[in-house]
Write a structure and sequence with these properties.
The chain has 3 helices and 3 strands; from the N terminus they run αβαβαβ. The protein has about 100 residues and is an alpha/beta fold. Helix 3 links the parallel strand 2 and strand 3. The chain is globular and about 35 Å long.
Length: about 100
Amino acid sequence: MLQNLLEKLQFKEQKNILVQGLPSSIEKQFAKIAFAKNVTPLLKTRKIDFALVFAVNVNQLSGIMREVLPALHEEGLFWIAHPKASSKIATDLSKSCSWDCV
C-alpha cells in the first residue's frame, strides 16, 4: 500500500524528507523510509525535497506552512493530508474549502 501511495505522491528517492503530523495509526506503514518528523536545523540548511504534512484544521495547517515552506527546496514537493469529511475527526479542512492559507 505504501508503495502505491508514494508513487501517487511522485516520491522518487528524494533525500531530505519530512513527514509531519503522521497519525500513529499509519506510522508503521512509513517505517521503510527514513524521514524527519519536524523541520530541524539540518533540514533548514539542506532544504526539504519532499514534504507530506498531516493537519486537522486551518490553524494547524497555517502554522505548519509557516515553518515548512521556507525550508522547502525550490523544486521540492509539498503534500497536505487532512481528515475526510466523513471521518469522525472534527476538521474545517476539505477538498472544497477555502485554501487561502496555501
